[in-house]
Each structure stands twice: as structure tokens, then as C-alpha cells.
Design a protein that fits this description.
The complex is a heterodimer.
Chain A (H helix, E strand, L loop, with lengths): L2 E8 L3 H8 L9 H17 L3 E6 L14 E4 L3 E2 L14 E2 L2 H13 L5 E3 L6 H10 L9 E7 L9 H16 L6 E7 L16 H13 L1 H5 L3 H8 L7 H8 L6 E8 L6 E7 L12 H9 L1
Parallel strand pairs in A: 1-8, 2-7, 2-8, 3-6
Antiparallel strand pairs in A: 1-10, 3-7, 4-5, 9-10
Chain B lengths: L18 H6 L1 H8 L4 H9 L1 H8 L3 H8 L3 H7 L3 H10 L4 H9 L3 H6 L8
Helix pairs in contact in B: 2-7, 3-4, 6-8
Classes of the chains: A alpha/beta, B mainly alpha.
């Protein structure tokens, strides 16, 4: 059976991918960002997940307002890198796990989450801006993804509570997949920033730090908040933090935050947090681990 | 009224992109979204008026795009994420657009940032 190793919350501002593409690793302005992703990269290299399930938002790139999906699950085997106005980034197309994704569609719909699906569409920086920092292609991506798009652009956007429940339903979907897959859940977006009006450039480090604490220790407090609270505390685009709630909802209550980094150089607070599920004991023979883990996590 | 958003109207300098703004600026946002296609970018760079004609933009919409009047575009109902594509085509960075929203020069805006070089 598939199992969930842990989760990652991360900002997805395009300059993260830009810093990677321009190799700013040793630039003092960017080094703190690169350093912050190193433990995440090392953890993934050690735990070797097969699939990363991404809660992310599109930026009016793949989708347009003639039909903007509230939730959309990618069920394809490959996703091109989207052209956002400058031509696509020079990284390979993303590889999708169509088998897991189709199973998730079945599971979600039977769980009364009537999700829409997409395939054969390009994906923008909402997924791959941070991805290169912790799962770099060398030369190809180390594994596959399942993308789940969440509308945070055009209000009404889904409530924090609904995103949390989506995360829980995704957990049930992943854990009921019969193949022995190792899965990590990723939520991208935030933290505080606002990209419109005279209030543009708004940040709130105090709130960001509190969010990073609550998402680990007491996520229900965040789930109970309204969008107006998120916007007041973290700016209009701070509402992207609902993708972190979906990620956290897909983890067990026993998941532990084992790393975090916070860097606020310009307009968007760039944060990353790594969550780990309790390690599952492998039997003496080294076999039967999957069965044990399925039991433990159900 | 969306109960999730009650209170947001009290925040100054904040333009929430909702179904009303989306409907009002649909033609303009569609034009901006079109910059994800290289042929549309090429047409706009070579003959902007032809690109405006093709998209059926009004005189006011054309003026705002031609002059990169970021603050007016935002007030009009443009989505930031569509404007971002115009920014890329015109080689205008996000900090410069944000400065425009705030009614500041880029230099003034950068003075308010922790790491002005991180662009």
C-alpha cells in the first residue's frame, strides 16, 4: 500500500526558481534561501519518495477566468513547463503519476469531493519554482508528481476549512492506493505578501512566525480562521496559506516539524517547513513493512 | 456578500479580485493572459495597435497598457497575475510593478525592503 512519509510547506514566488536558474547559491542576497532548502533536499534524497502530491495554485497561466477551477486534479503522465511570458524555464517536463492520480480521482469523488480533473496542460511556477530547490532534476526529475490546483485568485475561493478537509480526503485516497509507493505531500504559497493596491508590499513577519508555529502545533486554529483574517494579517496573497492547510490536513496528527526556514528579502516572505511522519518499524525479516505501515496510518 | 471576506473592505489600498472585477476586466485580462503564447507577444511588440485591435480593447484599456499605468490597471480590475505577464513582456520586474501600485519610484520602494539586491 502507498504510505505518506511527511509533508513540505513552501513559498512559491517565481524568484525562488529564478535564483536557482541563475545559480545565485553563493550570492549573499540569496544564500540564506538556498541554505534553508538544504535540509529538505537532503531528507528527500535520503527518504527517496516516488511521488510528491502538490497542493498549489495556478497564476492565470494554465487556466483563465472563462473557467477557473476551484479544485482541479492533474491526472496526466507528463506536464510541460508553462510559458508565463518569457518562454518556459529550462527544466524538463514534470512527470505525473497517472495511476495514483486516477485512483485519487475515484477515491475523492466517492468521498463526496467532486473534483475536476485536467491532463495535457502546462504547469506554472506554483509547482516548479520551489521544486528545483529541493528535488532538482539531475538531469531528469527524481520522481513523479500529482498536482492539485486550488483557486486562490478569484474570490470566492475555497474556505480554509474546506482545504483542510480536502487534505484529509487526499490522505484517505493516497493510503488506499494498492501499490507500494512512498508519497510526500507538498503545499505551496505564502507567506505574507500583497501584490495589489497601495498596500502592495505588505508583510507581517510576526504573523508569519505564528503561522509557522500553529501549522505544526495547532493547525485547527488556522482552519477556524476566515479569509478576511488571513488577508488582514498576511496580505491578499497571504491567503495562499490555505494550500499549507491542505498539506497539513493530509498528514497525521503525529507528524512533527523537523525543519523550517524564513527569509524575507523583498515583497514575499519565503518560508519552508518540513514535516515528518513517525518512522515505521520494519520487521526483522525486512518484509511486511508496507502492511504494517498501512495499518499504522489508517 | 461572501462572509469569508467581511471586514476586508476596511483595509485601505486593497483591491480584491472577485467575480465583479473579473467580469468587468475579462477582455483586458484575456488579452494579458494571451502573452503566454509567443505569437501574441510578437504581435504586441511589433505592432501594439494591431494586438489591441485583435483583442478589441477600448481606448482607455489601450492607454493603460501602452503607458504601463500599473495603478490604473489594478483599479480597473486587472488581475495581478495577468499584469505579471505584461511585466515580463515589457521587462518590468515585480518590485517595479509593486512600486507603481504604491505610487512610488522603484528606488523609493527598494529603500523599504530588507534585501534590495534580491531581485
Amino acid at each position: 500500500m502507498a504510505k505518506i512519509l511527511g509533508g513540505i510547506g513552501t513559498s512559491h514566488v517565481p524568484t525562488i526558481g529564478g535564483a536557482y536558474d541563475r545559480n545565485k547559491r553563493n550570492d549573499p542576497d540569496w544564500a540564506p534561501l538556498f541554505r534553508g532548502y538544504e535540509p529538505v533536499k537532503a531528507w528527500l534524497a535520503q527518504r527517496k519518495p516516488d511521488v510528491l502530491v502538490f497542493f498549489y495554485n495556478d497564476h492565470a497561466t494554465t487556466f483563465f477566468f472563462d473557467h477557473y477551477p476551484t479544485f482541479a486534479l492533474g491526472v496526466g503522465a507528463e506536464y510541460a513547463i508553462a510559458d508565463e511570458g518569457l518562454g518556459p524555464r529550462a527544466v524538463p517536463p514534470l512527470k505525473g503519476h497517472a495511476g495514483l492520480a486516477r485512483h485519487m480521482a475515484d477515491s475523492l469523488v466517492n468521498d463526496e469531493f467532486d473534483i475536476s480533473v485536467f491532463q495535457d496542460l502546462p504547469i506554472d511556477h506554483g509547482v516548479h519554482s520551489p521544486l528545483t530547490m529541493f528535488w532538482p532534476p539531475s538531469p531528469d526529475w527524481p520522481g513523479k508528481i500529482v498536482p492539485i490546483e486550488i483557486n486562490v485568485l478569484q474570490h470566492p475561493i475555497p474556505t480554509p476549512a474546506r482545504c483542510w478537509k480536502l487534505g484529509q480526503a487526499v490522505r484517505r485516497a493516497v493510503l488506499s492506493y494498492p501499490e507500494d509507493l512512498k508519497v510526500v505531500i507538498v503545499g505551496t504559497g505564502g507567506l505574507s505578501h500583497q501584490m495589489n493596491g497601495e498596500r502592495a508590499g505588505f508583510n507581517n513577519e510576526k504573523w508569519d512566525r505564528k503561522f509557522l508555529d500553529l501549522i505544526a502545533r495547532d493547525p485547527r486554529k488556522l482552519v477556524a480562521m476566515r479569509h478576511a483574517d488571513y488577508i488582514r494579517l498576511g496580505g491578499t496573497e497571504g491567503a495562499e496559506e490555505i494550500m499549507w492547510l491542505a498539506m497539513r490536513g493530509a498528514l497525521s496528527p503525529r507528524a512533527r516539524k523537523i525543519h523550517e526556514n524564513y527569509y524575507l528579502p523583498m515583497t514575499t516572505a519565503m518560508a519552508v517547513a518540513l514535516f515528518e511522519e513517525p518512522m515505521q518499524k520494519v520487521s526483522a525479516s525486512g518484509k511486511g513493512g508496507a502492511r504494517t505501515s498501512a495499518k499504522m496510518s489508517s | 456578500m461572501n462572509p469569508q471576506l467581511k471586514g476586508v473592505e476596511q483595509l485601505e489600498g486593497t483591491y480584491l479580485f472577485d467575480l465583479a472585477s473579473s467580469a468587468k476586466a475579462l477582455r483586458l485580462n484575456r488579452f494579458l493572459h494571451g502573452f503566454t503564447v509567443p505569437a501574441n507577444r510578437a504581435l504586441f511588440k511589433e505592432t501594439p495597435e494591431a494586438a489591441f485591435d485583435k483583442a478589441g480593447l477600448t481606448a482607455e484599456e489601450r492607454r493603460m497598457v501602452r503607458e504601463l499605468d500599473w495603478a490604473a490597471l489594478m483599479r480597473y480590475g486587472a488581475s495581478f497575475f495577468c499584469l505579471e505577464k505584461l511585466g515580463r513582456v515589457k521587462s518590468v520586474s515585480n518590485p517595479e510593478m509593486v512600486a507603481g501600485f504604491r505610487g512610488e519610484s522603484l528606488e523609493e520602494f527598494l529603500k523599504t525592503r530588507n534585501v534590495p539586491g534580491a531581485r
